[in-house]
Amino acid sequence: MAITVHLASYLRPFAGERGEIVIEKAGNVRDLLAQLPAGVRDRVLDGAGAVRQHVNVFVNQTHAKDLGGLEAKLVAGDHVHLLPAVSGG
Q1: Is 57 helix (H, G, I), strand (E, B) or coil?
Q2: Domains and CATH numbers, the chain
């Protein structure tokens, strides 16, 4: 069983309009992000390889920051969600 990455609509043009990408195997979030199409990866990670300030990464229903950030472990069947931060006043 693989890991499913769910893409927010703003990322879909960089993934051939797909809303989901299936990754066969990744030990952690960093490994998973490295396997995404370059256009998606470049919008999720900054030049230093950190998750951009206005991007949220969730593993299943938990923010990846609460699981160890890019080192958060992944197992088969996990769902990773890449979402923009929401702010306002």
Answers
A1: strand
A2: 3-84 (3.10.20.30)
